[in-house]
Specification:
The protein is α/β, with parallel strands linked by helices. It has two domains: about 325 residues, ABC transporter type 1, transmembrane domain (ABC transporter transmembrane region fold, Up-down Bundle); about 240 residues, P-loop containing nucleotide triphosphate hydrolases (Rossmann fold). It has a six-stranded mixed beta sheet, with helices on both faces. Helix 2 packs antiparallel against helix 9.
Length: about 575
Amino acid sequence: MTNPQQGRWSAVGRLLQPHRIKIIGLALVSALGALAEAMFLVTVTHIALEFASSSGSGNTTINAVGIHLSTRSALAVGGGLIAFRLAAALIGVAVATGITAAVITDLRQQLSHSYLKTAWSVQQKEPAGQLQQLLVTYTQEAVNSVTAVTSALVAGLSLVALLGVAVTVSPAASLMVLLVLVALGGVLHPLRRAVNRFSSKAVDQELNFAHEIADLSNVSLEIEAFGVRNRVINHLGGLIRDIKPVLRRVDALVQMNTPLYVSLAYVVVLVGMVFVTTLEIGDVSAISAVMLVTLRSLSYGQQFQLSATTVAEGAPVLHSIDDTITRYRESPHPVGGTPIEAIGPIKVADLCFSYNPNSPTLEHLSFEINPGEIIGIIGPSGCGKTTLVHLLLGLREPSSGTIEVGGHPLATIDRRSWAKLVGFVPQDTSLISGTIEENVRFFRDIDEELVARAVKAAHLEDEIAAMPEGLATRLGGRDSQLSGGQRQRLAIARALVTEPRLLVLDEPTASLDSGAELFIRGTLAELGREVTVVVVAHRLSTLEECDRILVLDNGRLATFGRPEELAEDNSFYQSALKHSQLS
């Protein structure tokens, strides 16, 4: 079993695996830069001590790392070492930021692809705003961990290089420093484990908090309409207060790491100096150089400890990312394999579906829809109308039974050819940020003529023409420039723009006034017999255009026939007819 320490680094390692060549380059540049820095510190120490013990003549000879140089030459070498160190640091920054940018790009690609390529039934169960959460919050946490790893790499190699030079100058003193650093790492290890443990709890609470916020943002209208603004504020306040102790504990543990490390390290340096001077190990210049290098190495040790703590803090998010990607990939979106060019008869045989095995939603439905028919679906609320629509569109898989289109099982039909032949109008119209024309196209390659034709078929042509920018008018996700009826007709234009052979509408007039409903009914009447239409109706007036009506009751097919037949023998239709005063 992988221990927590290995798990933390392995999670980041998987993100960095594709960029190992760049990481090797970063390691090489960091090591060379650190060696230059260490040699500079040793050289400067020798120069300073030589000046302090002599007249400061430029002709004085010094011994730096076994090399005899004049003072002037040593100063020149020092300047060269500093220039090299700066160049190495700048190259290291360029490589490290390149790695970070590549990782965030790759991760966002993986997350977006896995989310959008998973089955729609899986997407539909996800919390509101899940894609935004994945591509913004999750990836930012991952970037923090990757940045920490590259910082730890630079710090660790710099530490090794500095200690290597120190060993060359004075092995005994350097051995003492090395033992101390190892001891410090051991002392601070429990602190990193505590950070990891509490970070896991914090991540879970943060995710739950984000999901609740997303849910509340989607019901802002209801909050205002029901006058519960203050109660929602209090509820949010409670959520915020609940998460505060865990966040504070994690933050305290993280911030505690630096002062503990620095204080312990300085104490050890002082003890070491007493130890070295008491035992008279080495000459003064060598000991001074080692101490200077040691003090500099402490900052790299501190950086390494901070980076390790950051990785521990971010590990739960990285594991959550891995689990999420795996979960999505285990339920891929069906792609089918049989291309079709037309919508033939739609045959449903013994169709069953349930969200919960103990509570069936649809039971043993069998019926057939002929090409060119306009079929209405009605029934009490919760009887499974929308679920049946999802099954007919291929968005969900039946629990049992079959759906065939033109003699082909729906599950085997190539999804790209199916999408070109099918148009869908959902209950609620969602807009994307872009122009009206882009909203009608909806990421599909559609020419302007087809867009104009779809807008006309949806009875939006005159209203769009009256706008100053016409089809180029920009809209947003919740844009208020369009009325509810206009938004719904835009959704119909979006569905009609590919000239589909099957059009499915899920309660398209449920929230519209009678004037907007007439436009939509007009569109249905003008489609002719080349398009098969399935419409879930909230109002019986919408069903005036239907050839046949399917009545669902408690998940079962109550009846399926012509409107005049239902008016004679179906109690639900008779009751609905009476209440709607439809003759």
